[in-house]
Amino acid sequence: MNNSPAATARDWVSARSWDRFVGIPESAVLDVKSGVYQLDDPAGTGELIKDVAAFANSRGGLLLVGFGTRADGGREIIDEVKPVPARLVDVDRYRKLIRDRVRPHVRDLTVDFHPVDDERGVLVIDIPAQPETAKPFVVPGPDGRKTPTTVGVPIRDADATVWLTHDGLQRLLSTGWNTEGGPRADIIDAVKKAVAAAVPAPAPAPPLPAPTHPEVGEGAGRQRQQFTTAYAAAGGQTALGHPTQPVTAVGPGLIQPLASRNGAPGPVLTVMPDRAGAVVPSEIWEDLCETGDTADPQVSISNVGLPSAPAGTPLVIRADARTVELEGGRFGPGRLAQVSPGGRLLWRPHTRRDFETHHNNFATGELTELYLRAVLDVAWQKWTYGPQSLPVEARHRHRDLLAQSGLAAHMSRLVQRHTTAVETPTWSLATGSDSNHSAISSHVRAQITEPDGRSAVTANSVLQTGNWRSPSSVLATVDLGLNLRHLPKTPGPDDAQPTRYRLPIVDLVDALVTLWEAIIALPEPLEPDFIRLPYAAPPFVVFYIHAGAAAPADGDGAVARQLNLADVFDFAALGDGPHNVSRTQTALRIVGPFDPDHAARQRLVADSLTDLALGWGFLAADVNGLLAKKCGSPD
Hints:
Helix content is 26%, strand content 26%. It is built from 15 helices and 33 strands. The chain is elongated and about 110 Å long.
């Protein structure tokens, strides 16, 4: 069987290369089914054991459940992969039925279910070639009784399963039965010969030349030693198999695939520049080739990188590893991680911060004296939102997620520090000419007003499926506006005229973290299980910080004055610095916004603000001091 079509088919099964079966015909060693065997129906169980025994009586073969066929010139051609629901497959029941009803026992038979996603897969029943001394394999005969009392001998005839005819079986049995003094073994021999006559023997294959394989590390140049050291550390040829090709460059490093003795795909050796080699099991290599871009493994690995090995010690990755650190990809630092039990490993970024900004920073609604915006951008592979337009249920869920977040309470706390009567903001779907509702977007807002009706704090949020970069993206914004002129003034030096109120920089940390924690839940109305989807690009959240315009004082006919950051923030917690920060806006970005906990988010925001302050001239700015004052008032 090693050189037969069945061996090739088994290689495809080992590699889970289901698409390779499309376009080939069923044969004496391959039979496919589009639906599962109905094991609760006697006809279904009869069909299963008949098919298994027929392969056992022939040269062995594969039964694959999860493919569709079409008729073509009297043959059945496999024309599509049709995975079957996992809930309908009980492999233990399949094994027990075959074991109980096929006589004699079929040696080395395997029944396996290979998932293709969370709910579906392909059932593979592999019947190896059986010893001639074990044949024939018999099953309960097709006599229509609930408890059969007869037996039959099924065989493969080309691409079909048929029963050995009664006449042929009787004639050959009688030959041995009526032989005087003939032992009962002659009867069995006669049946063996009948089966052999019904199934033509394949033409003998010409002898194959002794296989030659590339050497480990061949083509790696000066990095060959990393390959050979990693190969030896993982057990060498006995454990890993042999190389199938010389070393090639893929993505940020070099790789060399291996294969087992029977030709099935084995581990892959990888080497990154200035690193030791890594041994990647075939299962994890498949996930690595898919997670960055399912259409092209080369692009996938270029995006997410290769396993990160130490500088001097080979890395041997376990097949059941749930996390694999990666480096060198265009997506930036990240890892393969199992995000759902039993699921494949997906790429996830390491959380990091920078000051790259790619989105507009225009306000949604009224411009205020201090304006904060958070923008979440997440893109998934080949994901599309089903409805043509956002239903009202999704818009209500958008509103409810914000009402349940800490943003409403934070808005109240901002105002409650300065006034005695504070209303609780109510989130509602935005209305009016300044609303941003559309077929693909939802807009909700909330507001706290002073007793005289003037706005103190406003919040707006827009949730949108699809954006300028990808239709598989979700874009969300949460904006917070604060009118500082409506808050009590801070006394100036020497009891002079009070100056305008300025928000302590430590309160800015809290505000940005609150926006962050509100916005990362917003994709849920569009894709409830979004955490389990593979990314098409690193997700990120951008924070914009604006100083708006100050309204003229009462009775003053002057026009509104543009404020700068020093007018709206109290920078005392940053230490000595410039008397005036002339900037009117700034921004920062967090890549991988879903993973950090609350304390880590505070640290990342405070670190970023400290770096910005250093650039503005606050040379004594210290993140530890900033966090220490986070819950108090500035000195």
